[in-house]
Design goal:
Jelly Rolls; two-stranded antiparallel ribbon
Length: about 140
């Protein structure tokens, strides 16, 4: 069997076994903001984040495109300017980019699978308090 026939056979076989479901396809973050990849050597990072019930994270920003998928629970995300969204189990969203925000577990603990599409020399997350010169985080609109 030549390579093309093997590839076609494998594709047909796998399509009968595997299933895929697109979870999200977007060109903007959850608040309608733009997405831009950082310059430099590409680096993909993935983490599993857990926030306990009632806990609110510190204000922070992401200078790289960040996608979250809610594995368990619900989270309320609030920007420093007061925009809010609640994401629940099974939801995916692209985080606001460079915008200062925080997350709070709602009703129970929340587990989020997070993917960062960054670069080797760019941090994935920056605490707002550690960025007084706004190198990575944008100033709030009301400042």
């Amino acid at each position: 069997m030549n390579f093309l026939k093997k590839s076609l056979f494998t594709t047909i076989l796998l399509s009968q076994i595997l299933q895929s479901q697109e979870l999200l396809k977007t060109q903007t973050s959850w608040d309608g903001g733009s997405i831009a990849y950082p310059k430099g050597k590409a680096e993909i990072t993935s983490i599993k984040l857990k926030i306990d019930e009632g806990v609110t994270s510190k204000f922070h920003c992401h200078p790289v495109p960040t996608l979250g998928y809610i594995l368990k629970g619900s989270v309320e995300i609030e920007t420093i300017d007061g925009k809010k969204v609640v994401l629940k189990e099974g939801d995916s969203a692209v985080e606001v980019m460079g915008t200062i925000h925080r997350g709070k577990a709602v009703d129970s603990s929340v587990e989020i699978l997070v993917f960062y599409a960054g670069s080797v020399d760019t941090p994935t997350t920056v605490l707002a308090e550690n960025d007084p010169d706004y190198k990575h985080c944008k100033k709030a609109l009301n400042n």
